[in-house]
TrEMBL record:
InterPro entries: F-box-assoc_dom_typ1, F-box-assoc_interact_dom, F-box_domain. Residues 6-119 form the F-box associated beta-propeller type domain. It comes from Capsicum annuum (Capsicum pepper). It comes from the Eukaryota. This is F-box associated beta-propeller type 1 domain-containing protein.
């Protein structure tokens, strides 16, 4: 018996008519619906994505964030940036922080932003905003 499977599709972002979609946090697609072009399967196992446009290099970029569990049970996130022009991923070396809420990044002024907090004693406190500059990857 062949059952239909539901795979959650999430819109990561949209810039200049180009749409970024993620399926089950592992398959990423860049879609231009006006010309019916699809750049597919930029694979990775990410807990959060962001999508934006790098004006300096005239390039569309995706940031993928992966959650890691250390040997001492601590957790941190590592980021990677995908460049559409280069068709490749690059690791963000300085991005080893904890993001509590896996959401899509918000693109503002050339940077992708996420809200972040520390959870202590069951409560979220110390809210801040973290960002990745798409031009320099910091």
């Amino acid at each position: 018996m062949n059952k239909s499977q539901n795979h959650p599709i999430k819109v990561v972002g949209s810039i200049n008519g180009l749409i970024s979609l993620a399926i089950e946090e592992k398959d990423l697609f860049l879609w231009n619906p006006s010309v019916s072009k699809l750049k597919n399967s930029l694979t990775g196992r990410f807990t959060s994505y962001g999508f934006g446009y790098d004006e300096l290099y005239d390039d569309y970029k995706v940031v993928g964030i992966t959650k890691y569990l250390c040997y001492d049970d601590s957790r941190y996130n590592v980021g990677k940036v995908y460049s559409l022009n280069n068709n490749s991923w690059k690791r963000l070396d300085d991005f080893q922080i904890v993001i509590q809420f896996p959401r899509s990044g918000v693109f503002v002024n050339g940077k992708l932003h996420w809200t972040n907090t520390a959870k202590r004693f069951g409560y979220h406190n110390d809210w801040d905003i973290i960002f990745v500059d798409l031009a320099d990857g910091r």
